[in-house]
Amino acid sequence: MTTVDRVVEERHWWDRLSACPACGAKVSASADASRGRCGRCDLEWSQEGHITEWHAERPVGDERALPYEWIAGHRLAGRAKIIFLAKRALWKLLTLIGFPVRHLVRRKLAAFQRRSLVDRTLAEQWRRHYLKGLALPVNPLMFEYSYRKVEKLGFAALLGFRIAIQDIRRHVWWGDHRHAWFQLVPVAGRYLPFTDSVVDLAFTDGVIFDMERPSLDTFFRECLRILKPGGYLIIWGGNSRARTRALAEIRWHGRIHSLEEVRSSTGAAGFTEIDFSFEGYAPPMFPTVFNMLRAALSPWPFKTYDYDSWLSRWQRPERRSFWLLRLAKPSAVPS
């Protein structure tokens, strides 16, 4: 029996791990339960196999297809509105011109995601870089709250991890990954939907830039709460010191948090820092065009991460595109 088969065979390992994202109360649900309500705040939930859905009153629209800059631009007026419309028209023109390249990049991305489900070597390479030196238990539980989820599903199964993924909308590919537990939380609540001290490893990325600073502090306190003593938090984010990367993050999210701000916030939450590093090449100009051409034309296999980029070796570490921050929850946490 393969590692993937063993993980899938452990059905409903997520039973009794749920907590209400609205009030934080523990939610008791058995493998046979299909629907219920939080005993404290009455928030409704439903269970469909390995997918838990929390039914908020305010529905969430379609996944954002445009950067925050374009969304915010619709509220402008006068000269600012004209400039916005001109930039938007130019962007659409460039998008049409670059369609063949974009199509090739999408094909390479899809091929990489298929590889991530079956390629043990790829999973081991990811583990050796991002989890190097971490003392994880056998069959650890990993919590994933990020934009790049698909490859982690494969890596988790190949490495013998259990994985729980939180998102604000349901995706069609969830049904193909029954070794994972998916939590659909349509409206961001104050709490992560897990009971205390159940997660061994938490991973997040640029989604932290969707949060204002007060919400960021709350999020890290919640990460500390759900982690077991000695558990780990891995954060991967765009580098505010890399000019083109910072502009890209601000256009997409509306903000960027510096590494220093994130270190301060996680430290205030109670985390102990293990290390931090910088990775990925940051083009000096036209980053979108450069990265698309690089992804489409590079002769080596495409990957969504860039920690081993030979181009980045020519940049000072603090000017590279991304930073990686690794933290631990202290083994003994003051009450």
Describe this structure in words.
By secondary structure, the protein is α/β, with parallel strands linked by helices. The protein has a domain of 231 residues: 3-Layer(aba) Sandwich (Rossmann fold), CATH 3.40.50.150. It is 36% helix and 19% strand. It contains ten helices and ten strands. It has a ten-stranded mixed beta sheet with strand order 1-2-3-6-5-4-7-8-10-9, sandwiched between helices. Helix 7 links the parallel strand 7 and strand 8. Helix 4 runs parallel beside helix 6 and helix 4 packs across helix 10. The chain is globular, with a radius of gyration of 21 Å. The N terminus is likely disordered.
Q: What is the number of strand segments?
A: 10
CATH topology of the domain at 98-328: Rossmann fold
**Rg, alpha carbons:** 21 Å
Strand order of the largest sheet: 1-2-3-6-5-4-7-8-10-9
CATH architecture of the domain at 98-328: 3-Layer(aba) Sandwich
Number of helices: 10
Q: How far from one another are the termini? A: 43 Å
Q: Helix fraction?
A: 25-40%
Assign the structural class, choosing from mainly alpha, mainly beta, alpha/beta, alpha+beta, or little secondary structure.
Answer: alpha/beta
The helix/strand series, from N terminus to C terminus, equals: HEEEHHHHEHEEEHEHHEHE
Would you identify the regions where 5 or more consecutive residues have pLDDT less than 50? 3-9
Mean pLDDT: 87
Overall CATH class of the domain at 98-328: Alpha Beta
Instruction: Report the β-strand fraction as a percent range.
Output: 15-25%
What general outline do the C-alpha atoms trace?
A: globular
The main pleated sheet reads as: 10 strands, mixed
> What is the CATH H-level superfamily of the domain at 98-328?
Vaccinia Virus protein VP39
